[in-house]
Design goal:
The chain is mostly beta strands. Helix content is 0%, strand content 42%.
């Protein structure tokens, strides 16, 4: 121990991955932890300090779904959505084996045999495969029997058996030598099985399921050994035994970890809370003293296994979708609003967080803005409120403004700072007194769908709004009356609107992938739409001198355009790994800042079109769920006379299609048409070709789309059943 009298505690939260942390494994001696992520990388961490060891292990072309250390700690194996298994040198990070190819769909789980000579893998192709670690060759044919994705595999401690859990709701036990199913299927779960593990003595098997329960089975007979362990309120994603076999831990989409006593089957101690997303992986340290958990909130947390307390201090910050960014008028600070319900203030020069997050909203912060004098900040939220904050102290000023009846999507100050405007999913725009928070006049009505963006003209005389109804509307700021007709040349949702600095023009960005420029006086289109983005345009803004337009898109890029000609003024700015949700120029025009679903803000040199500094990292929530109508329904409409769902790059299915989303989250038809979008946090929950289950942000809720009776084209009328007959 040397002369150090007080060793530093490891931090309770480790950040580094840019997307969901999907899997974890301890090295056999407990000195290292390996993690895999949807960001396609593997990271190695010091088990004591929580610091990253070396560079990320990169090579997979898809999400890393499972990682494991070899028993001698010399190697790491990983399974990926790219359908391959790779073997890495644990010290150097160099690939020493693979890619091992043979599966025809996502590899969901990998594990080493106790003697380290073999690797097993489970896949969405419904099979288990055994591989020789020395040669990388497949041993025998695949183990077949499951009728759904194989989500989890493990060896028995004596290496004589293999267990597998599947989306077909069963667990199977296989003979290692013959590959024959010898026990099971073990039936009892009512939803997909997500995780399986052997007890250290090999006598029991545990399983976690989307039915929110953990079950314990006799490994020899397959009989239930206890009543289901109940307590989680959402799907159980990971289970593990303590090294001494006395406890079971479970991680869940309800964002908690629970500890269970194996003798009594009762919950032991308090529920462990701290993650802000699905807990995807849990594991005990080899000495049983520590629990580690990985989450869709992009972090790894460490817990004292005895007390359940988080170990060490916390390093907090944004770690989720950054919805909105804005500069302070003096150019010194940047603010960001996130799905983690907080607003953060950053030093514009250094990128360092300034003070603590501004807490108060109870749902995603969708829009933020500084007052013209820089003294206050306003924020709009999906909790249906607008809040005002003191920019110096971070304290809330007054009570929340809560007269909207649905999500608040956009907020802005008037140029003189006396008024605030807000746009909402209740389809209205409202004007508020910035000092008192009182409503000024009634709501501005006219849009037929939710209002996604609002802005004042530079002289404060006009308000513009963009809407899901595909139009832009202009309003008289004093009277609230509509000025002229709606600007209606976009063919899809208008997500963002802005005035030019001289007030002569309006720009708009849309889901039709274009930016349009309009004459602010007449409402006429000034020129052809600006085309270049390959997905929805989420945010647009003018440079302070009016010479440039910037746009952010779901294609993960920022583009710069010449405002006069409409031509691209630079190459696309690339670096974000998820959709870009917000873009803004600094007041001096020298920098561009962008916020993204990858949980970061990035700052770019506006002239050189290069990244000016490292990303500002910290927001903690996964991408939000699909928006719902006010009647609490989700509707699917046939967009063409007939279509077929395009297969994902992977496996054919019994239904003839796969509901698995593409990399951008969209499920498309065979003509590349968009059918529906799956949020990033839900894409891992595709359970079968016929059923897509997505956990929602609200506790105890999920939405399932059942495709067993999916009807194509106009044939949907054949399955309609009248409720009045």
């Amino acid at each position: 121990m040397g002369n150090l009298l007080s060793w530093p505690a490891s931090p309770s939260k480790w950040t580094g991955h840019t997307q969901a942390v999907t899997c974890l494994s301890y090295s056999p001696n407990g000195t290292r932890i390996v993690s895999g992520s949807d960001d396609k990388t593997i990271r190695i961490w010091d088990g004591e300090s929580g610091t990253v060891v070396g560079e990320p292990l990169a090579g997979h072309n898809g999400a890393v779904n499972s990682v494991a250390y070899s028993p001698d700690a010399r190697h790491i194996t990983s399974g990926s959505s790219d359908r391959t298994i790779r073997i890495w040198d644990a010290d150097t990070g160099v690939v020493v084996g693979g890619p091992l190819e043979g599966h025809i769909d996502w590899v969901r789980s990998v594990a080493y045999s106790p003697d380290g000579r073999y690797i097993i893998s489970g896949s969405d192709d419904c099979t288990i495969r055994i591989w020789d670690t020395g040669t990388g060759a497949a041993i025998g044919g695949p183990l077949k029997g499951h009728t759904g994705s194989v989500s989890s595999v493990a060896y028995s401690p004596d290496q004589r058996r293999i267990i597998s859990g599947s989306f077909d709701r069963t667990i199977r036990v296989w003979d290692t030598d013959t590959g024959v199913s010898v026990v099971g299927p073990l039936e009892g779960h009512t939803r997909p099985v997500s995780s399986v593990a052997y007890s250290p003595d090999g006598r029991y098997i545990i399983s976690g399921s989307d039915d929110c329960t953990i079950r314990i089975w006799d490994a020899e007979t397959g009989a239930a050994a206890a009543e289901p362990l109940e307590g989680h309120t959402q799907l159980v994603s990971s289970v593990a035994y303590s090294p001494d076999g006395r406890y079971i831990i479970s991680g869940s989409s309800d964002r908690t970890i629970r500890i269970w006593d194996t003798n009594t089957s009762a919950a032991f101690g308090d529920t462990l809370k701290g993650h802000n997303g699905t807990v995807s992986s849990v594991v005990y340290s080899p000495d049983g003293r520590t629990i580690i958990s990985g989450s869709f909130d992009h972090t790894i947390r460490t817990w004292d296994a005895k007390t359940g307390a988080a170990v060490g201090g916390s390093r907090d910050g944004h770690i989720g979708w950054v919805q909105s960014v804005a500069y302070s008028p003096d150019n010194r600070h940047i603010i960001s609003g996130s799905d983690d319900c907080t607003i953060r203030v950053w030093d514009a020069d250094t990128g360092a967080a300034v003070g603590n997050p501004l807490d108060g909203h109870t749902n995603s912060v969708s829009s933020v803005a500084y007052s013209p004098d820089g003294r206050t900040i306003i924020s709009g939220s999906f909790d249906k409120t607008i809040r005002i904050w003191d920019a110096d102290t971070g304290a809330a000023v007054g009570n929340p403004i809560d007269e909207h009846t649905d999500w608040v999507r956009s907020v802005a100050y008037s140029p003189d700072g006396r008024r605030i405007i807000s746009g909402s999913d209740d389809r209205t725009i409202r004007i508020w007194d910035a000092k008192t928070g009182a409503a000024i006049g009634g709501p501005l009505d006219g849009h037929t769908q939710f209002v996604s963006s609002v802005a004042y003209s530079p002289d404060g005389r006009r308000i513009i709004s963009g809407s899901r109804d595909c139009t832009i509307r202009m309003w008289d700021a004093e009277t609230g009356t509509a000025v002229g007709g709606p600007l209606d040349e976009h063919t899809d949702w208008v997500r963002s609107v802005a005035y030019s600095p001289d007030g002569r023009h309006i720009i708009s960005g849309s889901d039709d992938r274009t930016i349009r420029i309009w004459d602010a006086e007449t409402g006429a289109a000034v020129r052809d739409p600006l085309v270049g983005h390959t997905y929805s345009v989420s945010s647009v803004a003018y440079s302070p001198d009016g010479r440039r337009i910037i746009s952010g898109s779901f294609d993960r890029t920022i583009r710069i355009w010449d405002a006069e000609t409409g031509a691209p003024a630079a190459d696309p700015l690339e670096g974000h790994t998820e959709p870009v949700s917000s873009v803004v120029y600094s007041p001096d025009g020298r920098h561009i800042t962008s916020g993204s679903g990858d949980a970061t803000n990035r700052t770019w040199d506006a002239e050189a079109s290069t990244k000016a500094r490292k990303p500002l990292e910290g927001h903690p929530h996964p991408i939000r769920s699909i928006p719902h109508a006010s009647d609490n329904t989700t509707r699917m409409w046939d967009a063409s006379p007939s279509f077929s769902i395009r297969p994902s790059s992977g496996s054919p299915t019994q239904s003839g299609f796969c509901a698995k989303p593409d990399i951008d989250g969209w499920v498309r038809d065979s003509e590349d048409g968009l059918l529906y979008w799956v949020p990033h946090d839900c894409r891992r929950s595709v359970h079968s070709p016929a059923l897509l289950t997505m956990p929602l942000s609200s506790p105890n809720r999920s939405v399932s789309l059942d495709f067993e009776d999916f009807a194509f084209g106009t044939s949907w009328t054949q399955i309609f059943q009248s409720t009045t007959s």
